[in-house]
Amino acid sequence: MSDEHARVLIARYNAGALTPAEEAELEGLIEQGRVELSELEDLRRLDERLDRFFAGERSRRMLAGFREWLAAAEEDAAPPAADGPWWRRLFAPAPGLGLAYSLVVLLLGAGLGYLLRGAAPPPADDARIARLSEELSDLRESMMLTMLERESTADRLKAVNLTQEMDEVGGRVAEALLRTLNGDPNVNVRLAALDALAQYTRHPRVREGLIAAIARQQSPLVQMALAELMAGLQEKRSAAELRRLLDRDETTPEAKERIRASLEVLM
Amino acid sequence: MLNVKAGNVDQLGLLFERYHRRLYGFFFRRLHDAELSEDLVQNVFVRVLKYRHQFRGDGEFNVWLFHIARNVQHDFFRRRRLPVAGSAEDWQDQLEDQALTPSQDMINREEHQQLRTALQRLDPDKREVIVMAKLKGLKYKEIGELLGCTEGAVKVKVFRALQELKKQFRELDR
Q1: Which side of chain B, N or C, has fewer Cβ within a 10 Å radius?
Q2: Is the whole-model pTM more than 0.95?
Q3: Which of A66, A89, A102 is nearest to A151 (CA)?
């Protein structure tokens, strides 16, 4: 096949005019290395979008991992509970929890590996896969809700980060994340909860919860992150709450600057 | 950073959020290894925490940060007994703020949601090849070795996966 014919096929692909037989020819040329995927305009644009998407996914994962590491490093550096008041010893992390968490991660990995395997499963396995998927989902949700109540910051961060593996969040998880955003004592856990909730803003309850959360935040970091998120979502219903936050004397100058910038986008 | 130095270690998370993408790009351009680049970014911040008392605050934090990044890179190459990649001064193009405007951020979020949904609708084998090429940063030859096929066959698999992804997009747009 001549280079001229290859150019014709590329042009017909880019015009959306390729027949099935021509598509098979084009695949042959791709396999031989005579046509590069970057020469196909639609696919080049899609490829660029995928680069942005996976950069975002990687970024979320790195941030989640760093917050967990930082929380663990802070806890390692803190004086042991035995040296503190007697009531703190009541809240020492359960020794088995780390093992339980590792087991959940292992099962999730095995389950995900099973779901991602190359060959399509025979029809009889579809029901088993669906059941496994549902069981893993229930296990993950239960683990997350339990760990959110732990005293250890690192455990609560791990709990929030478990939502990254969830395609969807149910009502219980969404409510738990909103409670965490509004009430967790550690700012990094609250920020992680906000990042997690930001993935589910297509749900009205999550959006309403985020708008209501604006009034409850004292930390400038969370205030700024919320203002930025509202601007990114073009959520005009948040403007009233953002203005009230702007008017508070105790809101820091940096947070006020960010809120003003977000209000400009929203108006 | 001055807050971190004063003991508000929590705020290191904010610095990580602001700088980790640039640092990742800095390492990936030299190493072409996604997982290793992620590890080295983490190493940079471990050092930022460890040596926070050395930050004097009389210069830009990003300059100090990239000095640490270059040292992390040099140590990595020295441990592996490899020649150091990149010139000593070529990190300065990393210093510019690449923060998105709110409208760019909104477009990215919508695009992100759409892509996530479209990817979830793909057959597992098609999704897998895209993840290997894009998230794990594997070359087609490496993917071929993992899947037991030629580099050319991998390119065809990627072509078919992207075609299917394009189709899913069209359906989501309707």
Answers
A1: C
A2: no
A3: A89
